[in-house]
Fold:
Amino acid sequence: MRAATRTGIAALPAMLCGAAAVLGGAASVAAGNSWGADYFPNVPLTTHEGKVVRFYDDLLKGKAVAINLIYTHCSASCPLETAKLAQVQRLLGDRVGKDVFFYSISIDPSRDTPEVLKAYAQKFHAGPGWLFLTGKEQDIQLLSSKLGLSSLTDAARRDGHLPSLMVGHEPTGQWMRNSAVDNPRFLATIIGDFLGWRDEKPQRSYADLRELPKIDKGEYLFRSRCAACHTVGKGDGIGPDLAGVTTRRDHCWVARYVAEPDRVLADGDPIATELFARYKDVRMPNLSLAPDEVAVLLSYIEKQGRGR
Amino acid sequence: MYLPRNASKARLREAENARKNRAEIVKAFCDGQVSRRDLIRMGLMSAAGTLVMTNGLSVFAPSAYASIPTGAPSSPLFGVQPFTQPMPRFDVLPRNAVSTLSPAPTAQANTTQQPLNPALEGVAAGDTGPIEGRPPGPIWAHQQFAAFPPRVAIEVTQEGAKVNNAYNPQVPSSLNSGINAAAPFSPRFHPDLPVQSPLKLWTHNGTLPPKLMIVRYGEPVLFRHRNKLPFDVTQNGGFGRHTISTHEHNGHHGAENDGFTGAFFFPGQFYDYHYPIVLAGYRTINTGATDPRAGGPDDSGGIVKVAGDWRETMSTHWFHDHMFSFTAQNVYKGIAGMFNIYSSLDRGNEAINDGVNLRLPSGTATSFGNLDYDVNLMLADKAWDANGQQFFDIFNFDGFLGDRMTVNLAYKPFFEVERRKYRFRILNAAVSRFFKLALSDGSPMIQIANDGNLLPNPVTLTETDELGIAERYDLVIDFSRYSVGSKVWMVNLTEHEDGTGPKQDLSLAAALAGSSSDPAVGKFLEFRIVRNPAVADQSQVPATLIPNPDLSAVPVARQRTFVFGDGANQTTRDPVTSFRGPWGIGTNGGGVLDADFGRISAAPRFGTRETWTLVNDGGGWDHPIHIHFEEGQILARNGSANAVPAWEKGRKDVYRLRPDGSVTITMQFRDWGGMFMEHCHNTVHEDNAMLLRWEIDDNGAPFIRPLPTPIARPQGVTFQPPDDILPSAF
Structure:
């Protein structure tokens, strides 16, 4: 196959090589930044506000950015990514939109129209300086590979995409990959330090460190998986307040819903359908929790609810 | 010509901007990854056979990324032919008196303040910061510092490439392929390739060849690492981070010396690493130090006996950067060296016949640590740009592959040998590449060690197993079978097409035929048999080297399963070390989730052992897993003890999972407390997950101590309580 391909177009490589020779002398990359205009695609994208922008010229050039991939029909980690990034945005305050720009690019552009993305942004209380973007599928595939946000091993299904957050400073070509579902406080710190922001808050020296109170597995799971959208007794967040949920609902139903909310909803379960509608069509993500994790999580929620 | 000669300037500029991307197209085209018909269909080529530019970009970037080198055209050779330069031996770092260190080392980090350079990130004029970057306070103090006071100081800088005027191979020129060590040694991959810019190559002391630390049991070392990289973080030549954290790979040291990924230090700072060089089990086994097999060489051919289990003796380590999120870039950039440990068993002197010394090939000139016939080989694939400067694609997280093979950072060199036995300590220092090694004539080699550890029994092979990233194989090759004037080559049989793992292993004949599309396949090191040995070869390869410790009396406290996945279901990460990415670690059958301390809430019990099964569920990924701290033994592969090959029957610190395979290991937790990591040692993968933080209590209590991760800043190391519950969900 390979040999046949080569034979068939024997004349072409020579032509291409000639072109490269003509251009080679002038093609050196600007010193200090290998990752600039000649690396990033300047493809058109549309924001959730309906504005058409060019990726490099309008979104990247001269800016510090944090970029991830999402899609609104995602039943895996995307909702958690978005909820966590919303927390990061609140921690960074008005620096977002001024010193750093957040971009969430849809990998499902045919369904994620600007209107859909606008509604999605509102559900998660995304603030100014955070754009949700759609465009041509081919352009977005190119973008994601150029940004290191896709992998050769990505599953064919979209849920296989990497939950990564690329943080970069275009003018100096500095880029760093983080997890988009990281601890928001840590992410906010990392972004600031990476971008060289001066932290004016008083710091506590590591020499003053004291051991932290132990947190149990249930609390840890709640903090890392649930707390971006739920509280226990502090009111509704992106999702419902979970105080009393273990008595309000049938135990088996809750356990199954926590374990595989996507399936429960897809089955047309009436409670799941009602919740989906009540909480602005935000999908509860399937976080692949194991049965023992579901158990300790529910026991933690129950304990917290009682303790109030 | 597809561009008319009278093209407008704008058109030419556009074409220039697109050159890199079109080169990808050309390469994909030439490599047969796309056909002319594909190009026409994609609208990239007209029917007349000319390339059409679409935004100046390749729309099939994944295909281009599948090429080698990753994300770039092939590295130009400037007319250089293979096997035209001598292979330089490692540059041995001077071992100084501890009194030469200024300031003197301290148990806790030295927080003496110094003015900070305002070019550092987050620094304003007038700011000060500590001279040592180690986290301050008792938690990060050197454990057992008074019990193991350093007796040797090794001080090294990290800096941009420069000429080496102090090269010390510690062997005569005749054993270094004729290299005159007194001549200035330029930082380049070949004398006829361009000198590397200080922004593109960052090495220990800023120089080549790579550096070798020589240590021995019973002689604690203070390794002072000074960061002299550019203060301005943007002066990195497109890849690499100027903050570093140094990991002595598989050192049996306290956690504060382990190169914890978040405990990095800045330009202008140093970090003191305390390497006590003790045998594992020193608190509980042979505590009176009476067994001569447990010891290190003294300066006159004798033994300094030490406590511990002689069967835990280690030989070949390496040290490298472990910077949070930038390990792959920094190791590739040159922050890697080797670390030979000498012991009463592995003396580095082949003549001493005291019933303990194994007399492995080394030499006789000095009482220990002879390098004459004991040769460190560091294998790494590299890529460079049109100007010959090192290139790395920072946006490829599948794994970076270079197209030019280097040994000791020299492009396809030759090495002159005598007609006798040699020991080669071979390190896979690649970022993502595996190597399967053979001699070009198919002659046997004797594998005597795997990772840091001499095997129970030597294994004779004509082809090695695939050598994973960070693995070390010590091979003995007997050149006495060749005649003076003949040549034989070391050959790589493993073919890659991307960085996720090997594509296939070729036969020796196929690898030598040069038909592989992977330029790193084939001959990469030429041995020239130049003379008979000046002194008779006295070395031996005994049938028994170092048996495994008998663990039958050590209770198994716990069995765990870790699943290394490809990221489809990743949702969370460790809130303390605060790092995760697309490759997760699941435990105990709980689905593929990332490693976090909540999942390992029962920390390993001090003084017990555990049995771990590491499972690769990664859809074709091949993960070499490194567990920091203490080596383990492989009990089974894919559930079967019989599936463990002879060369893996010793102790190891890197475990190769193989695609969809599993490996069951057992390991002990003792001697030192602290935080340790278990991660994938495909360094590109590692940066993006697979960091696991251990806490081992220092007096044996089985618990995990949640500590905030250090936040390293030039002004000093701080912390934030790892509380990710915000006041409300909004």
